[in-house]
Write a structure and sequence with these properties.
Blueprint: H1 6-13, H2 15-18, E1 23-25, E2 31-33, E3 43-44, H3 45-54, E4 61-65, H4 66-86, E5 93-98, H5 105-114, E6 121-124, H6 127-136, E7 143-146, H7 152-160, E8 167-172, H8 177-188, E9 194-197, H9 222-234, E10 241-245, H10 255-274, E11 281-283, H11 307-324, E12 331-334, H12 338-341, E13 345-355, H13 372-383, H14 389-408, H15 414-435, H16 448-451, E14 454-458, H17 462-465, H18 467-472, E15 478-480, E16 490-495, E17 504-505, E18 518-520, E19 529-533, H19 539-542, E20 553-559, E21 565-571, H20 576-582, H21 587-603, H22 609-624
Parallel strand pairs: 4-20, 5-6, 5-12, 6-7, 7-8, 8-9, 9-10, 10-11, 11-12, 14-16
Antiparallel strand pairs: 1-2, 2-3, 4-13, 13-14, 13-19, 15-19, 16-17, 16-18, 20-21
Length: 633
């Protein structure tokens, strides 16, 4: 075989396809992160992990790159600026970030700061998120778009925020909200900034397609919007209606879905202007996708368009609709969250161990008087070839079933059963080696790769750090962050620390299809780190504490143009005590119960004083420690 190069690894893991300009591989086989883009300074990811470990943190580790957040904000704004220049658009571009996508304080604060030159605002969908926005948004002209269910306290808070020189727009998601808003605004003597969310007939594309269309959860029908205009006119408040909003779902994979929605919503916009509404803002919602697998297709983990194409289509659709009717161009608002934050976060975890289905590549020689089933299996293994590969697999399957039946009936002892299984797996491995060289693989043999995959046990929790992977089959790019100048000789899947059989990752990105295994390196006695990339959207907030594994250690890294970096924020993950408190366990109560149990064991002579002291010390240390395993050295 020819020498393996880092270019081979780049092609194998597709890093140049999904990594945008942010990730590459160094000549010595390490992942390099370029937060400002290629050629603008970078940081060696394995070196960064080792430095963070020397600071006292541990894997699993979430690394956020602040400069990638800044880059994403600038790129999105730049795409719309170029589109507006191309189409001679008269309005402005106003981005708002939906807090729900990643609510972590450092992330939101940094986005607000990086977004000041572009007047970036925030979108909120609840009272807690509204309170965050009121505290953080002080950029003149930045919008606070208020979506979601609204009670009196929500509406009052949003209205009173105008006294702080904020610009909250209360978006009507349901017809019943209008009367409450009118009543409360009259009582406070504050004229509101009002928006309406249109429920479009157009549907999204991808996993969330069912959340859009005529039966979507939120939004007003056209007849309800017309009635809203009439009601506001009767209250002399029509001038308060200043925003039209729509949203057709998250991670829209096909540009056609955006185009259809824009065409319909643009017609509603000019219709509202015809009715006398002074619409200043056209909010196209979220849905701008992320190309997780790099295939540039309408597959659910990809997108068949670029950010620039998306911006061009938005601007062109609104400009065309307005110019046909001689209407003024409104400011365009987007609620793109996933596209802003996904690339900025990388989850790093260490492989704890590897299990192989058949540890021995070849069976031992036949012994005298072995069971006929074993002899026949050995013959199958000997004769596997390209010509008989399917027949050999069927024979091996049949002999394994026969041997298992004989064992259950008492005609095969335990040692022979073990020998039979060893031969069966050796047959499968030999058959798989042949299958990998075949141009066409018969259907019966297509599951062998997954069946024989090694299990790499990772020090992480899928449920806490990659919940979308578990819950909905979301694909994230995953690969080793080092040893990429070496040929990977194993194929495996990842199992996490939880005791749940679903605690695994066994689907991986591919340009043509979903892979059931990932090429990995054999253990060499040194730490082996895996990176899960593009995990900045939703994963941290949606995570749940299965088996009481808590939040991971987290760092924010700022990289200078010359490649030097500094750690801006360092947040230790949950301790065992903190996680237990979430489910209403009290440290003092737990330790007292253990102390009483120890005293009973001492009286009964079941434990020595030295052992009791060690147990109490370990118990106290564990309560204060990390919920994940800590590797020594």
């Amino acid at each position: 075989m020819r020498h393996w190069t880092v270019r081979d690894s780049s092609e194998l893991y597709g890093i140049s396809n999904w990594g945008s300009t942010y990730f590459s591989i160094t000549p010595n086989g390490d992942i390099q992160v370029h937060p400002r883009g290629q050629g603008k300074g970078g940081v060696n990811l394995p070196d960064l992990v080792e430095e963070i470990r020397r600071r006292g943190l541990h894997t699993p580790l979430l690394v956020r790159f602040s400069d990638i957040l800044a880059s994403r904000v600038a790129e999105l704004a730049g795409c719309f600026e170029r589109a507006m220049e191309e189409y001679a658009y008269k309005g402005r571009y106003r981005a708002v970030y939906p807090i729900k996508v990643n609510q972590q304080r450092p992330v939101v604060e940094e986005l607000v700061e990086f977004g000041r030159p572009y007047c970036l605002g925030l979108e909120v969908g609840s009272k807690p998120e509204l309170l965050v926005a009121l505290a953080l948004i002080d950029t003149p002209g930045a919008l606070i778009v208020c979506n979601g269910y609204k009670d009196r306290a929500y509406i009052e808070t949003a209205l009173l925020a105008q006294k702080l020189r904020r610009h909250p727009i209360i978006v009507l998601d349901r017809p019943t909200e209008l009367e409450n808003l009118i009543k409360i605004s009259r009582e406070l003597g504050i004229r509101p900034h009002i928006g309406v969310r249109a429920r479009l007939a157009a549907r999204g594309a991808g996993k969330w397609v069912e959340s859009s269309g005529d039966r979507s959860k939120f939004g007003l029908s056209v007849s309800e919007i017309v009635a809203t205009v009439g009601r506001l006119r009767s209250e002399d408040m029509l001038d308060c209606l200043e925003l039209l909003h729509f949203h057709i779902g998250s991670q829209i994979t096909a540009i056609r879905a955006h185009k259809d929605a824009l065409r319909e919503a643009s017609r509603i916009l000019v219709g509202l202007l015809d009715l006398g509404a002074k619409i200043r803002f056209f909010d196209v919602g979220g849905g701008l996708g992320v190309d997780y697998d790099g295939s540039q297709t309408n597959f659910h983990s990809s997108m068949n368009y670029s950010t620039q194409e998306y911006a061009n289509d938005v601007v062109a659709a609104v400009a065309e609709a307005c110019e046909e009717r001689g209407m003024p161009h409104p400011d365009i608002v987007t609620e793109s969250g996933r596209a802003l934050v996904s690339h900025a976060s990388v989850l790093i975890f260490e492989v704890l161990g590897v299990d192989r289905v058949a540890p021995r590549p070849e069976p031992g020689p036949l012994q005298e008087a072995e069971h006929p089933v074993i002899e026949e299996l050995h013959q199958v293994w000997t004769n596997v070839s390209h010509k008989n590969v399917l027949e050999s697999y069927h024979d091996a399957m049949q002999l394994k079933e026969e041997g298992t039946s004989r064992f259950n009936l008492g005609y095969l002892d335990l040692a022979a059963r073990g020998r039979m299984e060893e031969l069966y797996w050796c047959c499968c491995h030999k058959i798989l080696r042949v299958v990998r060289e075949m141009d066409y693989v018969p259907e019966d043999l297509q599951g062998l790769e997954r069946l024989l995959a090694d299990i790499y046990y990772g020090n992480f929790s899928v449920f806490q750090s990659l919940p979308d992977s578990w819950a909905m089959g979301q694909l994230f790019p995953m690969m080793p962050i080092h040893r990429l100048d070496e040929r990977p000789t194993r194929r495996g899947i990842f199992a996490d620390l939880t005791c749940d059989s679903d605690g695994k990752v066994d689907q991986f990105i591919d340009l043509r299809d979903v892979r059931n295994v990932l090429e990995l390196h054999a253990p060499d006695g040194k730490p082996y780190y895996i990176g899960a990339f593009l995990v900045g959207a939703y994963q941290e907030t949606l995570g749940e504490m299965h088996n009481l594994f808590g939040d991971t250690d987290t760092v924010h890294v700022h990289v200078e143009p010359d490649g030097h970096y500094r750690i801006e924020h360092l947040v230790e993950g949950d301790t065992v005590e903190e996680v237990l408190s979430y489910v209403q366990y009290d440290r003092r109560g737990l330790t007292e119960r253990v102390r009483l149990a120890i005293e009973t064991a001492l009286r009964n002579g079941d434990i020595t004083l030295e052992e009791s002291a060690l147990l109490r010390r370990r118990y106290e240390q564990a309560l204060s420690g990390y919920t994940y395993l800590i590797q020594e050295g």
